[in-house]
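Weekly puzzle thread! Below is a chain. First person to post its structure in token form gets bragging rights.
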Amino acid sequence: PQVPLAESKPLWEISHGAWEGCLESEIETRYPGELERWRTTPTAVQMPGGENLQQVWDRAIAAWEQIIAEALGRGKPEQIGLVVAHDAINKVILCHVTGLGPEQFWSFKQGNGAISVIDFDQRGKPILQAMNITTHLAGGILDRTAAGAL
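Winning reply:
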């Protein structure tokens, strides 16, 4: 079957700005304490030359809501869609569909190549069916694909 493919810039990964491509030790040297703040209070960090979490949250949720509205509006009860994104975007979407805010950003882990499944009931309410499945990557049940990732 023909499957339409569309790129959505609002679902691009967070811009780490000056942190992009740096080791954690380099970030800590150049921006003392900021990496720890990112890990403990991500909503309080503005990455130099990059984005803050609220900016990412706003654009990702707007794009997500548009995708869902279009999918649910097609009138097909078994409509299936696929959204492919990176770690921060996936965490934002997972927070959103489970009713958590940006402050709980670190409540979810998303491994590289992980699959999460979000279903919708008859009223359009999201249901998280599965999260962070990485068994297809031959790594076993516990995900070790994103060790050390921001």
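Puzzle host: Confirmed. Bonus trivia for everyone else. Residues 16-50 form one domain.
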